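re: ur question from earlier - yeah i can do the single chain one, its not a big deal. heres the input i used so u can compare w yours
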Amino acid sequence: MYAQLKEIIISAIVRGDLKPGDQLPSQRVLCEQHEMSHMTVRRALDELMNEGAIYAIPGKGIYVSAHKEYLESGPLVGFTEDMARRGMIASSHVLEAEIIGASTVLAKVLAVAVGAPLVYLRRLRLANGEPMALQTTYLPHALCPGLLDHDLARVSLFAVLRQVYGLHLTHGATTVEATLADEEDVELFGVTLPAALLVTEQITYLDTGVAIEFVRTTYRGDRYRMRLQ
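and the output i got, formated as tokens:
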């Protein structure tokens, strides 16, 4: 019986009868409408929540989740290009941008000397004005001197590296993990605790084998899902 209710709700979402942000009827109403027990309705809703189709706001109700975007098409596709492919307009809020000395960990990751100058860039990435991801990026300053003179709130970092500095990005290594949002994430993304986040860490390499970038990206779990090829 619970599978039948799941199918009814999913079909309504697919048809557009239920749109992202719409509130579902209460459990009591669903029980009455479909002549199902509270336990049956609860199981159907729990599974839909686990699958990301709906979400609950304590004290308010259950709502239809927004459509989830797949993560970037590959390690050499930046956020700006990725959003353009989806027909969305990317923009950024630059939260921090400065030159720092490489820590022991970053020096090892980027294969530079400890204390070597790195470009440090922290940006909130948006699509059609909606916060989607938080990116913290480190690049060897010697490979892209003057990078912070560019308007990185408006232009693609990868495009600047390729077009201005003539760098040839060829491959990258990415790791993925899940985590929970903290208070800063709530403020930046506008999500409600507890909220799941998807975190990737990527090292991007040039055709010379030299690392050009280490970036840690935190994606909203309610707007992204992972597709591996």
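The domain at 2-64 is CATH 1.10.10.10 (Arc Repressor Mutant, subunit A). not sure if urs matches, ping me
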